[in-house]
Specification:
The chain has 15 helices and 17 strands. By secondary structure, the chain is α/β, with parallel strands linked by helices. The protein folds into two domains: 3-80 and 380-413, Urease, subunit C, domain 1, CATH 2.30.40; 82-369, Alpha-Beta Barrel (TIM Barrel). An eight-stranded parallel sheet has the order 7-8-9-10-11-12-13-14. A hairpin with a 5-residue loop joins strand 4 (61-63) and strand 5 (69-71). The structure holds N-(iminomethyl)-L-glutamic acid and fe (iii) ion. The site of fe (iii) ion has 5 residues, from loops.
Length: 416
């Protein structure tokens, strides 16, 4: 499933309901790249010309004398690895105390106001070495990969000082170098106001604009710039300033918008040609109109709505309106402590009424677009890197997210 003859950059509206399927298929990989696929009955006879061996349908793996490895995947599904375009997996410690506070009735915003939330993670991160941050973040990255993720974006945003933001971004740079998958980095100093700027919000914005952005750019540490543009966090005007400053250094925005209110975040993101605006629990007609015709992906994060017990994004309405929607995990310690893109697909279908095909396209083709990897990741394409998920035997593709707690991934093949 999800194998294309030519690159697909992004899917919109009705296009999202179609996933190309080849039944009874073969797929070949050489040196980490997809070299071909098609129906078994059309498999080139030359395919095994150097091999003394033909597939043995009774065994599921045969290493031939010529080094060709053949796997019989009868009953399984193969689809593109997920392109998870929004994560915060570099963090220290965990925040289950706040989870208990939430159970007792406190809201995300109330917890943040009491100094919990992002500021809590910033304190922990400040006390943690770069090495330890790297080790724990890589453990999380491998959890993501074993859950089917083949490319991911990682944000800073738990530093909130020049020194600690740079520390986080250097960890992400090292992850880019060592991870088995493609990694993109996003500079999110504008995630919350640090305590020392609690009475001088514009002063913190000045610090980001005048000190952090130039430094981050000079070390080439960020592919993107992010701002949490929402009620109680950064205003539209502050967002405007920071995105303008980032643009001078070639940082394209991917921002947090409209998680808590109709904040104007979507409009300011589109105005700055953001690659994506993310969360989007609050979306009305004005927001849909802004997105229509833009190059900005609407990325929704149902894991956060689920964990916080908050309203889900009207993603189905956006698709019905002809827009392009992506799905991501938002893996972070405060609002979505989960690596599972499979669960994200289930939430998208169960809570947001996306069909399994729409959800898969949102998490693959459109996810790749939302992190600047359009047409290369999130699809199975001849000549491109082999990045795919092999499921366990299942009766249908819909079964994958329907059986929402079952581990249905047999193998994940990744290359970058
Ligand atoms: O995407 N909404 C803002 N930021 C994160 C949460 C970060 C946290 O609570 O640690 C999010 O949900
Ligand atoms: Fe986030």
């Amino acid at each position: 499933m999800g194998a294309y003859d030519a690159p697909v950059m992004r899917l919109k509206g009705k296009e999202m309901s179609v996933v190309p399927v080849i039944e009874d298929a073969w797929l070949s990989v050489e040196d980490g790249k997809v070299t071909g696929f098609g129906r078994m009955k059309d498999m080139p006879s030359s395919f095994f010309e150097n091999s003394a061996c033909v597939p043995d349908r009774d065994r599921d793996r045969i290493d031939t004398e010529s080094g060709v490895s053949v796997e019989d995947l009868s009953g399984r599904f193969v689809f593109p690895a997920f392109a998870d375009s929004h994560t915060h997996i570099v963090y220290a410690g965990s925040r289950e105390t706040e989870y208990e506070d939430k159970i007792k009735g406190l809201s995300y915003v109330e917890i943040a106001k009491r100094g919990g939330g992002i500021l809590n993670s910033a304190d922990l991160l400040h006390r943690t070495s770069e090495e330890e941050l790297y080790e724990t973040a890589m453990e999380r990255l491998y959890k993501c990969v074993s859950g089917g993720t083949g490319a991911m974006e990682i944000k800073s945003g738990y530093g909130l000082s020049t020194e600690d933001e740079l520390k986080m971004l250097r960890v992400i740079r090292r992850m880019k170098e060592t991870a088995p998958i493609a990694v993109k980095s996003n500079f999110l100093a504008a995630h919350a106001f640090p305590r020392n700027y609690s009475n001088d919000h514009d002063g913190y914005v000045d610090l980001i604009v005048n000190e952090m952005i130039p430094l981050v750019a000079s070390e080439g540490l960020a592919d993107f710039i992010d701002v949490f543009c929402d009620e109680g966090f950064f205003t539209v005007e502050q967002t405007d300033r920071m995105l303008e400053a980032g643009a001078k250094y070639g940082m394209r925005p991917k921002i947090h918008a409209n998680e808590l209110a109709l904040s104007g975040g979507i409009q300011v993101g589109v105005k700055h040609n953001a690659l994506s605006v993310d969360h989007l629990e609050y979306v009305g007609k004005a927001e849909r109109d802004a997105l229509r015709g833009s190059e900005t992906m609407a990325t929704v994060l149902p894991g956060a709505a689920f964990f916080l017990g908050m309203p889900y994004s009207p993603a189905k309405e956006m698709i019905e309106d002809g827009l392009s929607v992506a799905l991501a995990s938002d893996y972070n310690p405060g609002s979505s402590p989960s690596a599972s893109m499979k669960f994200v697909l289930s939430l998208a279908s169960i809570m947001m009424r996306l069909t399994p095909a729409e959800a898969l396209n949102a998490a693959t083709v459109n996810g790749a677009y939302a992190m600047g990897l359009a047409g290369k990741y999130g699809q199975i394409l001849k000549g491109e890197k082999a990045n795919f998920v092999i499921t366990k035997p299942m009766p249908s593709f819909a079964y994958f997210s329907y059986s929402y707690t079952e581990d249905l991934i047999e193998k994940v093949v990744v290359n970058k």
